[in-house]
Amino acid sequence: MSDQIKYVLDEENIPKSWYNLNADFPKPVPDVLHPGTHQPVGPSDLEPLFPMELILQEVATDRYIDIPAPVRDVFRMWRPSPLVRARRLEQALGTPAKIYYKYEGVSPAGSHKPNTAVPQAWYNKEAGIKKLSTETGAGQWGSSLAFAGSLFGLDVLVFQVRVSFDQKPYRRALMETYGARCIASPSTETESGRAILAQHPDSPGSLGIAISEAVEVAAKNPDIKYALGSVLNHVMLHQTIIGQEAIKQCEMAGDDPDVIIGCAGGGSNFAGLAFPFLGLQLRGGRSRRIIAVEPAACPTLTRGTYAYDFGDTAHLTPLVKMHTLGSTFIPPGFHAGGLRYHGMSGMVSHAYELGLIEARAYHQVKCFEAGVQFARNEGIVPAPESTHAVRCAIDEALRCKAEGKAETILFNLSGHGHFDMQAYINYYEGKLVDVDYNEADLATALAGLPAVAA
To answer: Which residues carry this modification: N6-(pyridoxal phosphate)lysine (predicted)?
Structure first.
């Protein structure tokens, strides 16, 4: 019996196309609506924000979309990423389950985010764009777009959520090293930022607020386009290289996962791993349990409402039907900044509504406990976001132990925690506490959902 740990594909096995789950959904994803007319948006509505090639990907229903050769050439810097058998963790847990993780922390920016940052930057460069604006929470997306911008000669402006801007100075330094300008959000540089600060001078910020600022900058400047690191269909599409590689690597290992797990904030790393496997299932393959794991302090899938909502706080974006906590909802300042978003990807939300995936919510202390256990067995310190997936994988392995089942568990380790060590310091000092959202604030936010005819 093989005791192999790593399963590594050569560069020829970098996927040549992205997989589009929209081709295989049993029911189509609801249309994205214009915020004024409530009619389906057309390309002209999105053109102020995105280059046309990304708009076409946003509405595409083709099963496969070719990855441009220059993009695949950049991917060679870190892809294919390894699939790793967590044998030491299995032994520590005493579980009959087999645990695998797909490790996306090997990218230059340290997470899965360059998988979409690179193509987004390339398509903008091809369209003659010189500058991009964006938002970031923990900083994984901001640093990834900054990295991609440096490769293609684009200036990048990043609005970073204030609480993360303060908590994670090294992410900010990484963005600046790649040449980006990073601003704490809400800021005084936009109308939407100034409006928030007028009401809440000490606002911790949110991804919804930061999106408003970045969208406003792009909408008011014809020479600037906007880039988003999660939620949108084309972002889910770009991330599917993760799952496509994992399918081949599981075949190399002679295994086939029974349980697939990813943390979920906007949905990109979860979708990247899960959607190719879900596509196999929808085309007649075996069924699996697919679990999206979110923070209990921002429980979009497990507590949110499935409704049309804005993607940002200032209501500058189109309306997407998604699981949402309300666009004005501001989550408490827990450490998994990349999961502090009020809404979930329309595609992930649709899969959840169809009963194709499960959702689970954890408080942060249990997640950090799992992250420390994983680090002490497997050697990798996970990002706070990824600890949610680790927690769920450990719980599933312990369930297998209790039930005497030798199931195969696969999760996405979407990034490393090297720039998040203050969170671990807080954990060791007992300063990391579980925080809950305010029920009254949630009720107010949900009461403000836009009225859209069914």
So the answer is: 113
Q: Mean pLDDT over all residues of the chain?
A: 94
Count structural domains, the chain: 1
Strand, helix or coil at 397? helix
Decide: helix, strand or coil at residue 212.
helix
Asked if residue 255 is part of any domain, the answer here is yes
CATH classification of the domain holding 267:
3.40.50.1100
Provide the b/e sequence for 165-190 (b: ≥16 CB within 10 Å): bebbeebbebbeebebebbbbbbeeb
Strand order in the sheet with 408-413: 6-7, 83-85, 98-103, 408-413, 259-263, 289-295, 358-362
339-358 pLDDT tens trace: 878 899 999 999 999 999 99
412 with 269: CB under 8 angstroms? yes
Question: Would you say residue 341 lies in a domain?
Answer: yes
- Asked if residue 57 has pLDDT above 80, the reply is yes
Rounded to whole angstroms, how far apart are CA atoms 383 and 371? 8
Please tell me whether the overall predicted TM-score, pTM, comes out greater than 0.85 for this model: yes
* Nearest alpha carbon to residue 68 among 125, 150, 10: 125
> What domain range includes position 297?
6-13+68-110+234-442
- 3 state DSSP class of 328: coil
Cβ atoms of residues 363 and 297 within 8 Å: yes
Neighbours of 2 (CB within 10 A): 7
Distance, in Å, from the CA atom of 269 to the CA atom of 263, rounded to the nearest integer, reads 7
Q: Which helix (H) or strand (E) element contains residue 259? A: strand 259-263
Q: Which two tokens mark 80? A: 């294919």
Within a domain: 186: no
What's the CA gap between 59 and 41, in Å, rounded? 10
pLDDT in tens, 411-421: 999 999 998 89
CA angle 243, 360, 81 (to 5 degrees): 20
